[in-house]
Amino acid sequence: MEEAGLNRRDLLAGLAMAALPADMPAPDESSPSLYIPKVHLVEDRKLLHDFMDEFAFVNLVTATPSIRITHIPVLLNRNRGNVGTIYGHIARHNPQSETFDGKQAAVIVFQGPHSYISPSWYTKAEVVPTWNFAVVHASGTLKPIEDKKALHDLLAQLIHKFEDPKHTPYNFSKLPDSYTYPMIQNIIGFEMEIELLEGKFKLGQERSVGDKQGILKGLAATKPERSLLDLTAAFYQRHS
User: Fold this and answer.
1) Closest to 88 in 3D by CA, of 33, 163, 145, 139
2) By residue range, what is the domain housing residue 9?
């Protein structure tokens, strides 16, 4: 356990140092993966787990031998381990797979909605703009899942989570093993028992009732972000 803790601290220190100028001091080795003012700290485990289930497309971050980030969907088992266990998979040829040895540390970042907050939404004018958001960071060490049957089951669970059976006839379980198992050779799965779970919800909860009402009203009137549908259609048109 101590070795795993040291690996996690090494990862966090490496990530922080990569973003700092060379003449700045190194961060405290005992620091968590992100800065969280007390007012924005969320420790309600059920709320954090619900958030992780809802925003399950994550950033998998490792720092050995160099910083790598892979963007993938994951599964959360709330009942395994003290805080939960996360499962996912990446391409076997992805160099990040070398960190799946049970020793290398990782941070998995779950990010929810975010938005610019205008000073005009507050009750007083003497304020500056900010950006509100919610994130959950899960830290631990990565262990490989290479057994073909276990990988098949992981894929089935991932697909079941995201596939809508009401609107599609797709059924992964009905695909022949002669098709699925050769493809499974091209991926490697991982599991990560969560050693540290950090929730940061910066939603203006520290502000006055009037300001909170202004934030809600302002967000309701804000032009929504471009959807994946809009982005994809525009990209196709640009590159057709």
Assistant:
1) 145
2) 2-238
